[in-house]
Amino acid sequence: METEEERTFDFARTVALSDGVFAIALTLLVLSITVPTLSSGHHGELDRRLLHRGSEFGSYALSFVVIAGLWVRHHTFFRELRRVDGRITVLNLVYLGFVAFLPYPTRVLGLYGDQAIAVTLYAATAGTLGLLAGLSRTHALRAGLVSPAGRRQLGRREHPALVPTVFLASIPIAWASTTAALLSWLLLAIFPALRQRLGQRKPGAQ
Amino acid sequence: METEEERTFDFARTVALSDGVFAIALTLLVLSITVPTLSSGHHGELDRRLLHRGSEFGSYALSFVVIAGLWVRHHTFFRELRRVDGRITVLNLVYLGFVAFLPYPTRVLGLYGDQAIAVTLYAATAGTLGLLAGLSRTHALRAGLVSPAGRRQLGRREHPALVPTVFLASIPIAWASTTAALLSWLLLAIFPALRQRLGQRKPGAQ
Amino acid sequence: METEEERTFDFARTVALSDGVFAIALTLLVLSITVPTLSSGHHGELDRRLLHRGSEFGSYALSFVVIAGLWVRHHTFFRELRRVDGRITVLNLVYLGFVAFLPYPTRVLGLYGDQAIAVTLYAATAGTLGLLAGLSRTHALRAGLVSPAGRRQLGRREHPALVPTVFLASIPIAWASTTAALLSWLLLAIFPALRQRLGQRKPGAQ
Amino acid sequence: METEEERTFDFARTVALSDGVFAIALTLLVLSITVPTLSSGHHGELDRRLLHRGSEFGSYALSFVVIAGLWVRHHTFFRELRRVDGRITVLNLVYLGFVAFLPYPTRVLGLYGDQAIAVTLYAATAGTLGLLAGLSRTHALRAGLVSPAGRRQLGRREHPALVPTVFLASIPIAWASTTAALLSWLLLAIFPALRQRLGQRKPGAQ
After folding, report:
1. Is the pLDDT higher at D13 or at D8?
2. How far is A22 from A99, CA to CA, in rounded Å?
């Protein structure tokens, strides 16, 4: 049987590993932006060559927003946990595997955003992340890993099936129109802001 | 002589460095998957070109599972330690050197899994990791670095020679058949699940 | 409403993520220096080829000094905070996005320091970092996130608009003379040393 | 004036940033080993091509040992500090800049170990690291940052000028014989083992 101290240690190291993966995923993104190589006589073309990288800068910004958003959610979820068990540890490791993978589909999307396959790859990755987060939340609530206050906090979030449903539903849409699929994701960005404005009237709640 | 405070500090920094190496090794893996470069007229080929990278995605997943598995074992081992001494510090640093190296043989295996040398390189690295983990465990138990409760926990694990033996034994097998060698590793994946089901009847034990 | 424990957790993870991003941004810089590739008969040319990389070494040193300087400021700012709220979290994440991006403009500046666009890209990034740091400070003071002692410490710093103003003002200068723009940044490096010598007479203040 | 809490915070973040830089420098090394690319008909050449990378594996091992050794020294130094001041912070940041840079000269040395310039670059980097560590130790002792017990611990180390002197002295040797210069470094590896055997008779001292 585990002692209290062991639980604290498990918890601290799980959070430390997770923060490490998030920090590195965030910082590695800059490597995906290429530096223009100009021969000595053509330095004057630098303006044009940097502007030409617009989609790479956009892809960097998108990746950063997505991973930072996932970190905020991960952080508010783990804040409510009193301890972690083996299943949460495994779910969290698989989740981190998809966080660390996310720069790849984001980069493909930045370069080939007009292709249904690029949108599909991204939606499948993000949908899986949503599914894993939902499974973790559901398990934590059932297994009593969450404090009563945390239970209320997590209960106030959107239904755990919402994020994966939106992303998985966008995959068939992408094969008709990639623009429509991208717009359908925006609903998820608008949703929490809407809910926060309508539902949460308590001060101090993030 | 060391004070209690110094021991705590040693312990905390050793764990912090280890978690850092694990987190970075996990996250660097994504850099090994190459993004297809398509000329502007051939964007339609993206599907085919991504599917062609199946082995690179597989190699990413394999690496992630292996390193995550090592982290869980490292984590449950350090959880039972009351303090670290010079020998554990050195063994741990050498161990981390092989953890940080692991993406290399995994990548070679992902690309050339049909070659005995690729399987040999991977088995030698994983076998060495098993050997170092076994040495650390044996030393920690002998030098009294483990609490009585931790002693029971670690005693319940498989024999420290099992993992290195399986991997080192798979090397000659690989030169007859790489498939047979890869299948022999699967026994190690099945073994802990079997043991957990049969041997550990206490609740809360990971 | 948040409990005290939750606030501590938020704070600890925000600081951990930030330190991770700073540490990785600092360490990734070395990847931007290329190793000369010499054919076996021309090893003797190594001296000349390494000296030729002078601007890459300079760009590494500049990046390191800038990011280390930002870390010191980030660190002394967070030291004065009693807790973080949602807005500080968001401002900090955007700030980290620009910290992680900084190696890119620094590299472009190291290679093409004679081009106004390279200086502009760098000044815009650094100016945005200054702006975000200023916004964070102003918000923290207004929202009561700072202890009374911290309030005095932060009040002793330069005006929050100074850093962004100097950088944004250097952009038009760069299009007349890149050297003049680079020299205008040096004023910022001299300024804190001047202030420290003149204004702060208390011992122990960093 | 700083409060006790502020000092603890400074200390914790300085250590966290340092461990991050060490962990990343250790883990990035694996990226410097290239994976052989074989056309589909020549997979059988993999053995030969991997063996051909012997110097890259050696350079990985050397880098890992050097950075791990620096981490142990950094760690035992910071263990004795009661607090950090501005000067230690700056010295530590410059030190970390050279730690993060070390993979570059190590790689050059691994590829061109027979060239005096490669040995010179490495010796200059390592010598500077030794010099900075010596300056930090001297400053910490003079400024009273070290506890009385730590003062005795640090006093038992070798003279702070030893490491930089050996490395800087090896530079002119390298221009006569690179082998002699490399052998002169080995003395430093033998020295601590010798001292530990002869001088330290207290139990528990690392």
Report:
1. D13
2. 7
Mutation pick from D1, D3, D6 vs chain C, by most beta carbons of C within 10 Å, is D6
Nearest to A100 among B26, B47, B203 (CB): B26
**Of A177, D78, D55, D1, residue with least CA distance to C201:** D1
Task: Indicate the average pLDDT of chain A.
Answer: 81
Neighbours of C76 (CB within 10 A): 20
Express each pLDDT in A3-25 by its tens digit: 555 566 678 888 888 888 898 88
Only one residue has tokens 């000269």, namely D105
User: Residue D81's beta-bridge partner residues?
Assistant: D146
**Inter-chain touch D43–B107, beta carbons under 8 Å:** no
3-state secondary structure at position B81: strand
Domain count, chain A: 1
- How high is the pLDDT of residue D172? 93
Min Cα–Cα distance to chain A from B17, Å: 11
C-alpha A132 chain-centroid distance: 11
- In one letter, which amino acid is C155? G
C158 in contact with chain A, both atoms CB, cutoff 8 A: no
Whole-number Å distance between alpha carbons of C59 and C29: 9
Residues 6+ apart with CB under 8 A from C138: C160
pLDDT tier at B82 (50, 70, 90 boundaries)? confident
- Residue A169 confidence (pLDDT): 92
Contacts of residue D65, defined as CB under 8 A and 6 or more positions apart, other chains included, come to none
SS3 C180: helix
Q: Which of A46, A60, A63, A71 to mutate to test the interface with C (most CBs of C within 10 A)?
A: A46
Q: Does the beta carbon of C61 lie under 8 angstroms from any beta carbon of chain D?
A: yes
C28-48 mean pLDDT: 77
- Would the pLDDT of D116 be above 80? yes
Look up the domain containing B75 and give its range: 4-32+42-198
For residue A94, give both structure tokens: 């698989």
Rounded-to-integer distance, Cα C66 and Cα C104, Å: 13
Whether the CA torsion C134, C136, C139, C145 is positive or negative: it is negative
Q: Find out whether B103 and B32 touch, Cβ atoms under 8 Å.
A: yes
Segment D6-16 mean pLDDT: 75
3-class DSSP state for residue A155?
helix
Residue labelled with tokens 């070390």: D102
User: What average pLDDT score do residues C34-60 get?
Assistant: 78
Taking each helix axis from N to C terminus, what angle separates A178-198 and A116-142, rounded to the nearest 10 degrees? Answer: 30
Is C28–A28 a contact, with Cβ atoms under 8 angstroms apart? yes
Distance separating alpha carbons of residues A35 and A144, to the nearest angstrom = 51
A60 touches chain C (CB under 8 A): yes
Domain contains B203:
no
Q: Determine, yes or no, domain membership for D160.
A: yes
Which ipTM was obtained for this model? 0.77
Q: Which residue has the tokens 């300056």?
A: D135
Residue D8 lies in a domain: yes
Q: In this predicted model, what pLDDT tens digit does every residue of D71-87 receive, in sequence order?
A: 888 888 888 888 888 88
CA distances from C137 to A189, C88, C90, C192 (A): 27, 9, 13, 17
In a domain, C125, yes or no: yes
Stronger pLDDT, C7 or B49, i.e. the higher one: B49
**Percentage, residues of chain A above pLDDT 70:** 86
Q: Which residues 69-108 of A have a C-beta within 8 angstroms of C?
A: 71-72, 75, 78-79
**Token pair listed for C186:** 């040096």
Q: Give the tokens for residue C185.
A: 């940044």
CA atoms in the 13 A half-sphere facing the CB of B193 = 6
Q: Would you state the structure tokens that stand for residue A169, as one six-digit string?
A: 């539903």
Q: Report residue D92 as tokens.
A: 């530590």
| Mean pLDDT, residues B129-157 | 85
Q: Evaluate if residue B132 carries a pLDDT over 90.
A: yes
